[in-house]
């Protein structure tokens, strides 16, 4: 069975009208998806997307169209090979390598191929991945540039050591779900009263952790964090997120000023490219944890963040790196270095897809839930055929076959940019 | 005076037909340019481009079109502000930040704006930059994420200390030019006899340094390097270039095996994202120098390569980072850390433009020629209005007003992809 057709879409939601999603670097995002449908010869479909925040989504769509010829006619049974075809074309590689627009587009295509494969297998993606042998999982990874930190043989050993308890842990997740935290309370554009109300509602709903955006104004941040801490009490974790706003010295000073309200982690304190900067910040702000990942370009940068002891929390993103395959590499690296993975979600569709990685991580890779939590934002789920469901502060186990990447046809029509009804 | 029109082009040269430019990672490049013309209200033009190697050039053109609205109607007198508009749009920034396709396109636009400004000033770009005060130069830089390594105040001091000898050094360059090295002898696809002949011709032509591509087969590399060393003798420097082919352990083993033929530097031994990997390689292969830069995404990664002591040679690229402004930052960082800048050239048009950076560096930044040399490949210069000229192994000083970025109209027509005559 091979890939017979690739169709791309530019989908945008006019979220900037409400200030949902506002932070110190992204004041007015229009959550968007460069979206792709793969059709196999027998008519079965796989859906995938990469997440953007508006302008430039058309460039990602152009990148999807540029990559489509690489996978047309290719078999669906070796998704390691398919992934490497998308990231190692000798001419296209010049445009990255493995970063930026071309890598975002590769993510959409890789994820669509996995959605197709999981649907054909009749399994949710996390269960499909959890059914693969350690050797099959190791073969999904592009090991180039990783072997100074983790070899394929060491990764296989790590997976083997987690293999015998896979069924027990899968059963646990089906019964109890996976811990979530919510960012919905803390967007930068919200007034204090709204933050207080939403923080209270989050705790009442069962969340053990919330997140606030910081970085625009220190006095505002201190006041908001103090308010939130007063509302939730000392037993609830509050993460803070600066969205790359600071230079290294600013990050240290600002985080230190917030420390008395016991923030659980400082997220994206500086440039996502700055491994050494994160390491310097982490040394200075201990015991506040350092987290990053949603803008980390690829597995090579994650490797270094771990080698340098630069982060406490690995925030993989489903669509920034090249989809399922590269995220398997990142899960393996995190497990090898003993760091928890807490995926970036929010946006549009990210909650739907990243939960598959965390479920797979617990079942087959790290085998641990310690300090692991998936971001949740209650936003735009209605557009998806298999939406994320959070109950009592926990993600329920996805049960539908596929990767939960598929949008409803009526949403694809309404939010098509610029011709859809939402934009006219 | 403001920017009144932005016109983009997809230009490709069918270089893969001859194996010119072949290396271990790029076996069959079609040297290409996503090219842009800015028109001011009075009809004066600035030309700029980003270099690619073929497929995907249309995605860079789409990125140019996506960025064009950011600069239409903007004034030409503050190119620091123009550059920041191109790299800090809150929605577009998501697609990088500051890397990959969007950053390549920003480079083309920034460079076109400088070409326009230099033409209007009646000066070659290097002379225009060398006429700016330290404060004006410092204001061109985006200091975000740099201040842990270099502050604006320290950069100003550095520029001030080089200011009083500017005229003397400019006169020197006009008389004597700037040292070049040639890569034309060593493409991976060439047979031994051709390498020997070209190496001999390079020395006869006055080059003091040549470069060979390595990384596909160790036995071949040892034989080719031995041949080249025998031809040129011990007094000529031979750099070797692996084009990112290796993991860290391979890079160390391979470079060690080549060391007895006294390579001057090993270039791109591994992933351009791998700061810590380059640092490990450099420690292991000393006294062979480590060089990288043509694929380094932005100033933040260059900053870390310098902070970590990961490289001996800074190979800036005119079009990978965001053009003139970001390269001013990289020249300042390199000078602050005492490392020579030896720009990446070859490709199409890169020799024409990078020489302006090296000339400016000597006149106004580092003030030094020690171990500094500009890459030269004798290829595709005939398509440019103000082609690079190398005589006796030295680049002559560019004299025409502008940034030497402008292609001849007949070349733009013939190599337009896919409609130009070269492709039909």
Automatic annotation (TrEMBL), chains A, B:
Cited InterPro entries: Enolase-like_C_sf, Enolase-like_N, Enolase_C-like, L-fuconate_dehydratase, Mandel_Rmase/mucon_lact_enz_CS, Mandelate_racemase_C, Mandelate_racemase_N_dom, RHMD-like
One function term, GO molecular function aspect: L-fuconate dehydratase activity
Domain Mandelate racemase/muconate lactonizing enzyme C-terminal per the UniProt entry, residue ranges: 192-288
Domain of life (superkingdom): Bacteria
Catalytic reactions of this protein: L-fuconate = 2-dehydro-3-deoxy-L-fuconate + H2O
EC number annotated for this UniProt entry: 4.2.1.68
Requisite cofactors: Mg(2+)
TM regions (residue ranges): none
Pfam families: MR_MLE_C (PF13378), MR_MLE_N (PF02746)
GO biological process, one term: amino acid catabolic process
SUPFAM superfamilies in the record: Enolase C-terminal domain-like, Enolase N-terminal domain-like
Annotated keywords: Lyase, Magnesium, Metal-binding
This protein's name: L-fuconate dehydratase
Species of the source: Actinoplanes regularis
């Amino acid at each position: 069975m091979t890939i017979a057709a690739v169709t791309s879409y530019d989908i945008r939601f006019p979220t900037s009208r409400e200030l949902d999603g506002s932070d110190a670097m992204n004041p007015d995002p229009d959550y968007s998806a460069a979206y792709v449908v793969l059709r196999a010869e027998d008519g079965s479909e796989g859906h995938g997307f990469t997440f953007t925040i508006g302008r430039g989504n058309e460039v990602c769509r152009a990148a999807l169209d540029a990559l489509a010829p690489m996978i047309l006619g290719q078999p669906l049974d070796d998704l390691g090979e398919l992934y490497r075809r998308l990231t190692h074309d000798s001419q296209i590689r010049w445009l990255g390598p493995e970063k930026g627009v071309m890598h975002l587009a590769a993510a959409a295509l890789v994820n669509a191929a996995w959605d197709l494969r999981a649907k054909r297998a009749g399994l949710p993606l996390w269960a499909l991945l959890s059914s693969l042998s350690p050797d099959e999982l190791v073969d999904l990874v592009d090991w180039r540039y990783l072997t100074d930190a983790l070899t394929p043989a060491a990764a296989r050993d790590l997976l083997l050591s987690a293999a015998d308890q896979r069924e027990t842990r899968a059963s646990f997740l089906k019964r109890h779900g996976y811990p979530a935290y919510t960012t919905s309370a803390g967007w930068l554009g919200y007034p204090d009263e709204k933050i207080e109300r939403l923080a209270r509602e989050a705790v009442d709903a069962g969340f053990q952790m919330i997140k606030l955006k910081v970085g625009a104004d220190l006095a505002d941040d201190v006041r908001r964090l103090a308010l939130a801490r007063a509302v939730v009490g000392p037993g609830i974790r509050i993460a803070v997120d600066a969205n790359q706003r600071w230079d290294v010295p600013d990050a240290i000073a600002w985080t230190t000023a917030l420390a008395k309200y016991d923030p659980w982690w400082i997220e994206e304190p500086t440039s996502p490219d700055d491994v050494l900067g994160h390491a310097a910040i982490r040394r200075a702000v201990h015991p506040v944890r350092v987290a990053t990942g949603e803008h980390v370009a690829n597995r090579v940068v994650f490797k270094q963040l771990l080698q340098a002891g630069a982060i406490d929390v690995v925030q993989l993103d489903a669509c920034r790196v090249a989809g399922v395959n590269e995220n398997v590499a990142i899960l393996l690296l995190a497990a090898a270095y003993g760091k928890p993975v807490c995926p970036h979600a929010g946006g549009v569709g990210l909650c739907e897809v990243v939960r598959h990685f965390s479920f797979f991580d617990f079942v087959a890779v790290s085998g641990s839930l310690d300090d692991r939590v998936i971001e949740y934002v209650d936003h735009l789920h209605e557009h998806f055929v298999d939406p994320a469901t959070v109950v009592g502060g926990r993600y329920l186990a996805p049960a539908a076959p596929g990767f939960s990447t598929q949008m409803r046809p009526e949403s694809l029509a309404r939010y098509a940019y610029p011709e859809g009804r939402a934009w006219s």
